[in-house]
Amino acid sequence: MGNRIVENDISIEELLSEDPDGIILSGGPTLERSGRSQSYLEEIDLPFLGICLGHQIIANTFGGSVRRGKEEYAEVEVEILDGDDIFMDMPNKIKVWSSHGDEVVEISPMLKRLARSDICEYEAIRHRERPIFGVQWHPEVYHTERGEKIFKNFVEICRG
Amino acid sequence: MDTKGFIRETIEAIREEVKGKALMALSGGVDSSVCAYLSHKAIGSDLYPVFIDTGLMRLDEPAKIKETFKEMDLRVINAKESFLDSLRGVEEPEEKRKVIGNLFIRVFEEVARKVGARYLIQGTIYPDRIESEGGIKSHHNVGGMPLDYDFEEVIEPLRDLYKDEVREVARALSLPDEISERMPYPGPGMAVRILGEVTEEKLKIVKRANKIVEEEIKAYNPWQAFAALLGKGTGVKGDRRVYGWIISVRAVESRDGMTVNFLRLPWDTLERISFRITGEVPGVSRVVYDITPKPPATIEYE
């Protein structure tokens, strides 16, 4: 499985022309700069993994709310409440690295909470029916424990 | 990453792109050195490596770089006065980076005219672009670089690599350890390690303090370790009040510079650094250790 990085405002047709197996919504500075991410989530029936801003976009799209919260930078200890799918074969507690000022404060019944910390109650979420996952922290950075495992799990989910 | 494939394809691409002579902007760091070696393999004597002595480098650095690149017919341009003049009165960090980026290009243009080169090759890497385009800080070779440059083309062969990948390429090219394992050093040099206006006095102090920090921390294999000059504070030396400079010591570990943490140095080492800096560098009366990760801080101060 290869990977391609594209801008978050390309059209759905253009995105699908890449023939993706799954889509990762990356981090970014503010919800205002989320491009067409929301329409990808609504209209494309593929696995999604949202990271940081991507996680907040998922919450927002499916009826949750995002607000200016307690800020988290660098190391945060996260408690995983549901070890299926995206957190398969991972310990219950991991030290991860975060960098955000906004946070998810509420989710709708369409979503399910997967992880929490003492600073943020919605560190990870998923869609109840579709393979859509969000993590508030950054699994892609060196200092996050077991970050690579999350990507491997996501690849497995994409393989179906 | 496929290092061998990358080297082969990059050399071919440079050969393809450069029609004539090219200047190579060389700072002596791992990025521009790798770039210089690849470009030299690609176009040989059509490559003109140029090192600008900005006066903002570390102590003795220009001399060391001349020695390392003596086989490549390196041109060293002394532009110390121009840099110091242009920075006079400039306090705002982004403005500083732009002044420096602009001057770099103007000096390169002048050399290019003399030797008849139409291309500029520089060692920009992926994080330089992320940080510049994301508005975090303007790297002198990307966001801080003027767009009205007088080159046919600016070529950036390493633009998609992270630092650790550049090091892999350096090792595969069998470059000496002092290049492949060299600590990152910012393009604008000491100018971003001096808060506020850059003056000759501050430069002298921060360079001497920096040398001590590098010497004392070398054994801990830091990703980066340096001194920065923050401002002034009250002290007492030999029963006399001094209003002296405050030096911050920064030492961090990382894989790629995208996230870093401070080194948990032994107290004895920190104590020795403080003792040496306050004793050996006149005008310094206080030394602090920076314990902030990135994020929220960056590695460099400005």
Structure description:
- Chain B: This is GMP synthase [glutamine-hydrolyzing] subunit B.
- The complex is a heterodimer of chains A (160) and B (302).
- Chain A has 160 residues and is of the alpha/beta class.
- In chain A, 22% of the residues lie in helices and 32% in strands.
- The mean pLDDT of chain A is 95.
- Chain B has 302 residues and is of the alpha/beta class.
- Chain B folds into two domains: 3-180, Rossmann fold, CATH 3.40.50; 199-289, GMP Synthetase, Chain A, domain 3, CATH 3.30.300.10.
- Chain B contains ten helices and nine strands.
- The two termini of chain B are 32 Å apart.
- The A-B interface holds A 29, 71, 73-75, 97, 99, 138, 141-143 and B 134, 254-256, 258-259, 261, 293-296.
Give the CATH topology of chain A. Answer: Rossmann fold
What is the arithmetic mean of pLDDT of chain A?
Answer: 95
N→C terminal distance of chain B: 32 Å
* Percent range of helical residues of chain B: 40-55%
Residue windows where pLDDT falls under 50 for at least 5 positions of chain A: none
Distance between the termini of chain A: 13 Å
CATH homologous superfamily placement of the largest domain in chain B: HUPs
Please identify the top-level CATH class of chain A. Answer: Alpha Beta
Helices of chain B, by number, come to 10
Domain GMPS ATP-PPase (chain B): 1-182
Pathway (chain B): Purine metabolism; GMP biosynthesis; GMP from XMP (L-Gln route): step 1/1
GO molecular function, one term (chain B): GMP synthase activity
Function (chain B): Catalyzes the synthesis of GMP from XMP.
